[in-house]
Amino acid sequence: MASKKFKPSAKSALPFKTGNREKRQKLHITRKKALDNTRRDERFRRRREEDKDPSLREERLRKNIPLTLERKRVWDDVDRDTGDGLGLSVDVERLKRQKLEEEAQLDAEDDRGEVLETQTSEDDRDSMIDSASDSDEHTTAPPQPSSRQKSATERATSPTQSTTSTNLDLTPSALAARFPTLFSTDPPSEPKTLITTSLNSNLHHEARLLTTLFPNSVYIPRSAHRHSHKYSVREIAAFASNRSYTAVLVLKEDQKKPTGLTFVHLPKGPTFHFSINNWIEGKRLPGHGNPTDHMPELILNNFRTPLGLLTAHLFRTMFPPQPELQGRQVVTLHNQRDYIFLRRHRYVFREKRVTEKNVIGPDGKAVKGVEGIRAGLQELGPRFTMKLRRIDRGIQRGSGQEWEWQGKMEKQRTKFQL
User: Fold this and answer.
1) CA distance 246 to 62
2) Which residues contact 394 (CB under 8 A, 6 or more apart)?
3) Cis amide leading into 267 (omega within 30)
4) Phi-psi domain of 162 (left: phi exceeds 0; alpha: psi -120 through 50; beta: other)
5) Are 264 and 241 in contact (CB under 8 A)?
6) Which tens digits make up the pLDDT trace of 394-408?
7) 340, 389 contact by CB (below 8 A)
8) DSSP assignments along 305-330, one per residue
9) Closest Cα partner for 309 from 213, 153, 170?
10) Of 208, 211, 279, whose CA–CA distance to 247 is shortest?
11) Which of 46, 55, 87, 345 has its CA 20 to 30 A from that of 304?
12) What is the rounded distance in angstroms from the CA atom of residue 210 to the CA atom of residue 195?
């Protein structure tokens, strides 16, 4: 019986099923070779046609874009007044752009109304009226809509690039009023972090690595000896707040591996809970470098929603506002599909080699002005991946009693929270 999905060609045998195992194997090999030959002939035929007409290759490459989850990303349909928007998947930059366009359109309509009033008051000057009407026809001509229907790739593509830098100036006012300590208008203070672990933890080496990642940080071991007091996170936060610390970081473990990070913003919270996976220290990275004590630069990528801006402001408070550029160290926090990838590098600028290409920007085009310059990167470590799980209100005795936002509430795979 012929298969419905298989299209037999002249080079293949009739695709029927048989009870003999050896014949089935030979038939499968024959059909596979026939399919490979057919695809190869199609590929060479397409290449010959594209060599004759290069526009066919450009059109094929333009349409041949994979529909990834980032390109299928959907947003919540809301107006400009979104409140704090913690539970909404809203592009803050796009809302800001729409607001500016609406204001510009209102200003243009006001100007057009003033022009019409001046035209009616000056009827005696025909030449001026004619010139004004001509200019008005040119300015008020509505744009002709495109008759070409968008493809599935273009319809599914997000309106902005997924690798854009985070603009922290676009924070909604309601979100800043809800978390005043994170969105303070005062000049940012020098960060000072207390790093500890869960009770009876074995991750002393990993905690000391975090002291090299976060500037001005100190590691204090946490014990649960039977003759000692088992300090809670709330007591540790009160201890750190009295000693001018700005944050407490708790490293969690499971089976002697890092599994979570808890950021407590002092003095009154909130508390951020992250899960950790793919922890790799610097010594295991090929061609790694050794970090220095210089204050690193901070890069925040692709935090676009109100919840993403809140998370970005948390990480901004963990690093000093003025980095030491002579150290040439940079810490990158890149958000993609709600996973935050943390990397630390040392960079150096050098001349471009003949075999290397120019620097490509987020739009896919070569960046002008840096044609002969390349940047070399050396990873310092540690590297790991974080995912935001919950945001608690203040600093609580028991975790999860009162929360501002909690993960696993969105079941749609194409909707992201950060």
Assistant:
1) 49
2) 268, 269, 270, 271, 402
3) yes
4) alpha
5) no
6) 887 766 677 788 877
7) no
8) SHHHHHHHHHHHHTS-SS--GGG-EE
9) 170
10) 211
11) 345
12) 8
Half-sphere exposure of 7 (CA within 13 A, CB side): 3
pTM (two decimals): 0.75
Residue 288: both structure tokens together: 């790694």
Distance, CA of 262 to CA of 232 (rounded, Å): 13
Report the 10 Å Cβ neighbour count for 26. 13
Per-residue pLDDT tens digits for 296-349: 999 999 998 888 999 999 999 999 989 999 999 999 999 998 999 999 999 998
Between CA 209 and CA 194 the distance in angstroms is: 13
CA distances 43 to 37, 38, 50, 99, Å, are: 10, 9, 11, 48
Q: What does the alpha-carbon distance between residue 290 and residue 301 come to, in Å, rounded to a whole number?
A: 24
The closest of 246, 283, 262 to 386, measured between CA atoms, is: 262
At 180, which amino acid appears? P
DSSP β-ladder status, 339-351 and 193-197 = unpaired
Say which residues have a Cβ less than 8 Å from residue 192's Cβ, sequence separation at least 6.
216, 217, 244, 245, 246, 247
208, containing H or E segment: helix 204-213
Hunting for tokens 């995912």 — which residue is that? 387
Quote the CA–CA distance of 302 and 340 in Å, as a whole number.
10
Radius of gyration over every alpha carbon of the chain, rounded to an integer in angstroms: 30
